[in-house]
Task: structure prediction
Amino acid sequence: MSLPVTIYIPRDATALSLGAGQVAMAVAQAAGAQGAAVRIVRNGSRGLFWLEPLVEVLTDAGRIAYGPVQAADVPGLFRAGWLTGGAHPLRLGDITQLPYLARQQRLTFARVGVTDPISIEDYLAHQGYVGLRRALELAPLAIVKEVSDSGLRGRGGAAFPTGIKWQTVHDQKAAQKYICCNADEGDSGTFSDRMLMEGDPLTLIEGMTIAGLAVGATQGYIYLRAEYPHAHRTLYEAISAARQAGYLGADLLGSGRCFELEVRMGAGAYICGEETSMLESLEGRRGEVRVRPPLPAIKGLFGQPTVVNNVITLASVPVILRDGAAAYRDFGQARSRGTLPLQLAGNVRHGGLIERAFDLTVRELIEEYGGGTASGRPVRAVQIGGPLGAYLPASQLDTALEYEALAAAGALLGHGGVVVFDDTVDMLEMARYAMEFCALESCGKCTPCRIGSTRGTEVIDRISQGIDQEGNIALLEDLCSTMFNGSLCGLGGMTPYPVRSALKHFGEDFRRRPAGRTH
Amino acid sequence: MNETEEQLRARLERVVAPLRGKPGPLLEVLHAVQHEFGFVPASVVAPLAEMLNLSRAEVHGVLSFYHHFRHSPPGRHVLQLCRAEACQSMGARALATHVQESTGLDWHQTSGDGLLSLEPVFCLGNCACGPALMLDGELYGRVSAARVDELLASLVQPS
Result:
């Protein structure tokens, strides 16, 4: 009786959406039918989505990848002897040698797609919980200092220095403090939070635990959007596993220190990705934005000092504690330190996750990684940073994907999502959509956002009908200025980014004569 | 649903009991109610408010704020089509028009025979493989008009 052969078949939502579940069933069936001993591990995704479902077989020569595999391919793969790495048209060999992966610096995503996401044993075998063990030996302030020195800035979009936020919470005197993970990843074109929670949730759990030790918080919440049921299952399983193994609970690894963690589900409100709105929602209320100050770091969840960080921010903490602040800081340049998991999406041939040290231009990302558009047509516009991010025209593709360069170009890096559009895109439609989305998702608390967004769609409708186009374009500019300056939070305040950039770079789409109108 | 007020209350009690001790439990409770009933009936607002020591306005306010909570029973199958930008760049607008025309449903509508509800969704996190949709909780990527027709046809086949 030979040892079972390990086969990795992703449980990542994108892989499942392309048939990974059926592949896993087909593999189990075919293996059973021919008496082959296999052990199926449901891993995360490597983030090379055009190759999903990507199946890897652990052979004597290492992991050999095949993809994209459909259930119908499975009998043929067995016949080709894939259990020993046999030749087959879908054989990709060692996936880490593919330039797409080989030319990345995977720190935060080092284990995603590699390990069994809910196995503590696998996590430990891949340097998991080294950071937490070190944190347990450090004074709280020393942990805060490591994070400050690493140069880590919030990866959710606002890019606020994480160490400063932690220091503020650390300095508060309170009976109860909280760590809240913002996993309300609602930006179109972003999926790094989802991939991480599905592919390596223990990293997030470890990061939150370290944050708790640093600031003196004993309770954590992960606020997860309702649209991510797969991530919910993985998180739930991983938290149970961590608790059982003593990595969560009243006595962390016998240290006497405590950290508890709970997942709370959002309910389909984009605004709850805004931190104060998220806190309201966590408290069981309408997700209406709070006026700041006070900052959440001083008066946050249930009025207590609270660290609110994005998934990727918290998931980057274990590697900083493990390798030290300097090692993390060595990646990146100027004020963009460490790595950023970029997400390449939309109309692109090779979409996926690309973690790099802030050293790519938009063009390099789209051409060298993405292989151009999926449609084969020219790129016309690229939206960076979600529905509140600016549209860049093809002439600005040489902009670097780092905080300051994008700000200089009138754009934002946001959560690192890059959505490509080909030349069939109608930018007036996209501007209208931005206003419509803001109207739909506005919490209603402030007038510029609540009313401005509805008026915005109406003005754009008049422009598209050819009614006093120049006058209405001026009015739209004015409205954007009011929303930008007068809104309480980023929803109303940043909706002008996509609208104004569409107007600025694609003005011709706003000056078309509608069919049947001659004046 | 022909349950008496007492039966409804007993059912609610069972749903609320394990969550009552949690801090700020209302959202969790509404999720549990929707899980139990398939939607959140208006008739639960008053008893929930009483059980959680909240005003009816607070419960109604939260219930009506979040898109996820349904106010009427959904069809036997729920189709959520992504309308966000990344899916639009791959033809989600045309796909939505196709689905609306072939089913005769607008957003948030349920077919007369109770078979299908059509809902918009703003990002399923499948942005590199659009257009995306979710059918009864299963995610699908790179969905063409032909593929969605095939999925919808499978719903009416006797299983």
In short: Residues 447-464 of chain A form the longest helix (18 residues). Chain A has four domains: 5-98, 120-329, 332-422, 427-510. The longest strand of chain A covers residues 340-346.
